[in-house]
Amino acid sequence: MCLVCRRTTSGFSRCWQCNQHFQSCGAELADEVVPISMAAESGQLVHVLRNYKYSRNPAVRRQFTNELAGVLATFLARHRRCLGEFDTVTIVPGTKQRKDGHPLADVLGRRLTTTSSAFAEVLATTGDNTRLLRPDEYVVHADVAGERILLVDDQWTSGASLQSSAIALRRAGAARVTGLVIGRRVDTRAPGTFDWDTCVLCRQG
């Protein structure tokens, strides 16, 4: 299993994509990446992750945002301690600007008591790339020097958005960055690696 994104690998410590990131930026990457769920390409979670921000139906957006809030709440109730201490909770910024803001900002900043007091949107992006590692396209607009950051993203495909954000935070002085991802995109042939009772950090011991 890849040490970074937790996808299955064949005898290697990192998958090809995560190894490319490591060779490029090494210690500047996120200290941990914690996927809550493996999201199969044809599954319901991928459908929710695609539409909770951009469905044309407001009722669908509300329903799917509520479902993702439930996923985050359930995971944090069971595994908050696994993540360690953090000073700030923030999100990977979206590449498309929304008049009503990012739905996860409302979930983490208002709805969930485990994160609301520490939540702040400290990142912005100047690009529309989501597949390539480009930390220079991410701007940190708050003082994060010495802070432990919980960096939340809705999904991980290549990992470029989260890792670019993590690098930007590290370059701004953050002491530690832990990435928390709702859905790690996988194909349907990938075997399960953990469940609600055992997160990837529990599995590490």
TrEMBL record:
It comes from the Bacteria. CDD domains: PRTases_typeI. GO terms for molecular function: glycosyltransferase activity. The keyword Glycosyltransferase applies. Keywords: Glycosyltransferase, Transferase. The keyword Transferase applies. Belongs to the ComF/GntX family. This is Predicted amidophosphoribosyltransferases. It comes from Lentzea xinjiangensis.
